[in-house]
Amino acid sequence: MMDFWIILTGTLVAATCGILGCFLVLRKMAMVGDAISHSVLPGIAIAFLIGGSRDSFLMLFGAAVLGLITVFLIQLLQRSGLQSDASIGIVFTALFAIGVILISRNAQHIDLDLDCVLFGEIAYVPWDSLIWNGYNLGPVAIWMLGATFLIVLITVVLFYKQFKICAFDPALAAALGIPVVLFHYLLMGLVSLSTVASFESVGAILVVGMLIVPAATAYLLTDRLGLMLLYSVIIGAISSTGGYYMAKLFDASIAGSMITVCGILFVLAFLFSPSHGLISRWTKRQQMRVGSLKQAVE
């Protein structure tokens, strides 16, 4: 049963982050996801200091607020003339450092561990159960991640058309009357929620891999957004299951093994994708050269 809970936790993390990661990859904002995953740390620390407990709602709220502040500060610096990568680097390192200071200064007063926040430990998930009326309802992380996944899924389904147009052509979306800025911040808010919900299972650092790698792999396999979202979830599920058994085989980090399997799947897609794979493109170039030579001979 413990194996099931761990694999389900990894799958929920990968599926939630994978769906949002597709839109980040399409909008060329993958590193913004990286920035958010690190810069929400002060929000979590402040939530702990205010509430004095590991209250999930307070954590999610604090993370969402800091995520939106991160995006606002990045855009503010970009409008001031600073390059995109420099803006992201400045904002997320500064906020992340503030979060580390807050936690290290107040760790003795709150049940918060830096190693847990940074690296996570998915193996401990089955031990933290939700008890209601004397009944064991399963791990708290499953409920937290399941609720986050449903929020993300329902939001994307309800506003699929708007997210799609904003991702591919923001100018067209604005011309059609779609509030581009609103949907931009809605997406960033969902990324923030997903990030903090994943902290205790995969940590702030490895959640970046879940946000980017499954979506990037799916991007290589299809040109249709609907299929890309589906492939991203499937790749995440395969990575979670394969990563868990790899970790058991080599006695290694479970979260790290999951990301490693993600990376292996990406390399396979990069090489063998029918449309965007390296081998496929090389084969097409060779066929074009042979065709050109035949035409020249004729």
Automatic annotation (TrEMBL):
Transmembrane segments: 6-26, 33-51, 57-74, 86-104, 140-160, 172-196, 202-221, 228-247, 253-279
Source organism, top-level taxon: Bacteria
Listed InterPro entries: ABC_BtuC-like, ABC_TroCD
Pfam families: ABC-3
Compartment annotation: Cell membrane
Membrane topology (UniProt): Multi-pass membrane protein
Keywords of the record: Cell membrane, Membrane, Transmembrane, Transmembrane helix, Transport
Keyword field contains Transport: yes
Similarity comment text for this entry: Belongs to the ABC-3 integral membrane protein family.
Name listed for the protein in its UniProt record: Manganese ABC transporter permease MntD
Species of provenance: Paenibacillus motobuensis
Organism ancestry: Bacteria, Bacillati, Bacillota, Bacilli, Bacillales
Gene giving rise to this polypeptide: mntD
